[in-house]
Amino acid sequence: MRTAAVQFKATKGDVIASRRALVGLADRAGAGADLVVLPEMAATGYLFADAAAVRAVAEEPKGPTFQALAPIARAHRCHVVCGFAEVARDRLFNSALVIDPSGALAGVYRKTLLYDADLPWATPGDSGYATFDGGRFGVGICMDLNDDRFVDWVHAARVPVVAFPTNWVEDGSNVWWYWSWRLLGLRTSLVAANTWGEERVGAASVEFTGESAVLVDGVVVASGPHVGDRVVFATVP
After folding, report:
1. Total domain count for the chain?
2. What CATH number is attached to the domain comprising 128?
């Protein structure tokens, strides 16, 4: 399978411009990949003051982000996985769209293990983990990789490729080593699409690692820089 991890930093407060830039990178990625993975909450950024602020940019699964990316999937005959803030009735989720090569919505995965920044607004996903494209890949979002239940599922379901939208926070550690360690002993590939740089909301500030990467059986086979938008390509089993 040809994969592409898209590293991207949204312009906070300008979802329309961010989505336009994201589509440009996704188009470049789709031209060379069967599976394109975009970051967690890719077009909106990640830090928000409260649920009301998230609700202002949240969308339904077939909302503007799906409408913008579906033509990319259809034109290149690829799957596209993209993180977004989902609104479903009165609840908000940190979710990922899965778009199939026909441009149809194949499914939505909702982040199960929430990070501290999710807690003021997001509902944990409760529908369980799922594979797509006949079992060729599964989806996990950021903190899910810290969840033993997710790792156990990857092992039990023999998931060959994990599409991994993330906003991984810089903590001074080697992020590739950590991702590899979490999947130690599993015959799987991780396609990790991260954001980068600093994001601020009020007095709060977080720096993200960048360093998007594709790992095969724990070995980094392609990677991006610490800073900057980038498309990372790799062929995986």
Report:
1. 1
2. 3.60.110.10
Report pLDDT digits (tens) over 46-94: 999 999 999 999 999 999 999 999 999 999 999 999 999 999 989 999 9
* Cβ proximity of 30 and 4 under 8 Å: yes
The predicted-structure confidence for 179-235, as pLDDT tens digits, reads as follows 999 999 999 999 999 999 999 988 788 999 999 999 999 999 999 999 999 999 999
Which helix (H) or strand (E) element contains residue 220?
strand 219-223
Backbone angles phi, psi at 166, to 5 degrees: -150, 155
Record the tokens describing residue 174, joined without a space.
């080697």
Residue matched to tokens 């690692």: 209
Please report how many Cα atoms fall inside a 13 Å half-sphere around the Cα of residue 36, on the Cβ side.
35
**What single-letter amino acid sits at 130?**
A
- The answer to whether the beta carbons of residues 153 and 159 sit under 8 Å apart is yes
User: Residue written as tokens 């550690």?
Assistant: 173
Q: pTM to 2 decimals? A: 0.97
Domain boundaries, position 99: 2-235
% residues pLDDT > 70 (the chain): 100
DSSP 75-88: HHT-EEEEEEEEEE
